[in-house]
Amino acid sequence: MNKAIKKVLVVNSGSSSLKYQLFDMTTETRLAKGLVERIGAGGPANHAEALKKVVEELGNPKDIDAIGHRVLHGGETFCDSVLMNKANMAKAKKLVKFGPLHMPANLGGIEACEKIFKGVPNVGVFDTAFHQTMPDCAALYAIDQKFYKKYGIRKYGFHGTSHKFVTQAAAKFLKKPLSKVNLVTCHLGNGSSLAAIKNGEVVDTTMGLTPLAGLVMGTRCGDIDAAAVLSLMESEKKTPAEMDTILNKQSGLQAVSGVKGGDMRDICTNAAKGDKKAELALEMWAYRVALYIGAYNTVVGGADAIILTGGIGENSAEGRERVIGRLGALGVKLDKKTNAKTRGVTAVISAKGSKIPVIVLPTNEELMIARDTVRVLGN
Ligand code: AMP
Which residue, by CA, sits nearest to atom 12 of ligand 1? Predict the structure, then answer.
């Protein structure tokens, strides 16, 4: 495949929506972006119909060179982005069990593109791939290993594309070779995860077999004693599916603060008015983030920087202050003034003399997917 890849369409095909961005990769500029909603629920009947809408919105382009797709789960099969040829599609279909909601939509989006953009190569970029460098001691659960072998029960981690983007951007910002950079990267959004980056590679991350583990999130509880889940299922007579809904959709910041959706802005507003539930939610959230930053600083043997990204990491001065304020033992100090005015831009928000710099770095998962698409097809 020697043709120069110039125009790359990035597709994020979800269960009921399809997001897209079109890039000119000679300059890495975004040419278009859009969203098709309510697929199969009053809008387009399926992903192929949704893509036809995208083609219309883009003015029937004839010059798309490649398409990059966000795919939720690569299991242990995909440690990097790949060309989604027949063999790789067949392998990916075996991973649907790890993401029964998202994977059919992700793979359906690829199949629809094969039909609509005939002859244009499709590259799969997996949310789990960047985490595949984790050593066994971090990735495996301490259960009978026959369960790991039989069902693939282990830690995979998610948000890999975002952690990869900010890792590369941070190495550049710090003027360090990627292979020598040690970081704690914090993707703090509605869904949140941390990654421990040693020599440019992931050595641990907070999400697990599924995105439920780790931090307190918008509506997910994060880490919880597995026996507490069993106890609740028994007391409340809940099925696994019902329990899944409680832990993923009815917990986290939302459950503790009482704010629907667990939106950080609303919770901060309520806390400022003296709402005790909102205050507790923020403290639980910040405590867990700080706890993992401390742990991961140890894991990477001392971080060159702490990176904050995602909707909260990039925008919420209060959220950042609550986390960084807990890192005194690491010698980390916040520059409160810079923190207060930093929103959605790259900035060092730690004070001079902070032992570890804290850097806000806006993520760009779509651009990372486009870059990977170019790289994979160039190889
Ligand atoms: P994400 O999932 O990355 O889009 O992040 C969503 C989260 O970011 C929500 O909790 C929002 O409340 C939070 N967020 C977005 N913009 C702001 C802002 N300007 N100030 C505080 N929080 C924000």
Answer: 264
- Assess if residue 134 is contained within a domain: no
The span from the CA of 180 to the CA of 197, in Å, is: 10
Whole-number Å distance, alpha carbon 302 to ligand 1 midpoint, is: 29
Do the beta carbons of residue 290 and residue 332 sit within 8 Å? no
- Tens of pLDDT, residue by residue over 276-301, are 999 999 999 999 999 999 999 999 99
**Structural domain boundaries enclosing 102:** 7-126
> For the domain that residue 316 is a member of, what is the CATH number?
3.30.420.40
Report the alpha-carbon distance of residue 186 to residue 359 in Å, rounded. 10
Amino acid, single-letter form, for residue 327: L
Tell me if 52 is assigned to some domain.
Answer: yes
* Contact by Cβ (8 Å): 173, 359: yes
Cα 142 to ligand 1 centre (Å): 35
Positions annotated as catalytic residues are 127
What is the tally of structural domains in the chain?
2
Q: Tell me how far the alpha carbon of residue 30 is from its chain's centroid.
A: 21
310 CB within 6 A, ligand 1: yes
Which DSSP state fits 178?
A: G
Residue with tokens 């192929």: 48
Name the token pair of 364.
Answer: 């760009």
Q: Are residues 258 and 193 in the same domain?
A: yes
Burial of 297 (0-12, 13-18, 19+ CB in 10 A): buried
For the Cβ of 316 lying below 6 angstroms from any atom of ligand 1, the answer is yes
Q: Quick one: 233 and 293 in the same domain? A: yes
- Return the pLDDT at 91: 98
In order, the DSSP letters of 139-168 are HS-SS-HHHHHHH--S---S-HHHHHHHHH
The Cα–Cα gap between 208 and 158 comes to: 8
Q: Is the CB of 193 under 6 A from ligand 1?
A: no
Distance 179 CA to ligand 1 centre (A): 31
Contact 252 CB / ligand 1 (< 6 Å): no
pLDDT in tens, 324-378: 999 999 999 999 999 999 999 999 999 999 999 999 999 999 999 999 999 999 9
The strand pair at 305-309 and 358-360 is best described as parallel
195 and 264 share one domain: yes
- Do 343 and 226 lie in a common domain? yes
Contacts of 302 (CB under 8 A, 6+ apart): 182, 356
Q: Which of 41, 151, 173 is nearest to 94 (CA)?
A: 151
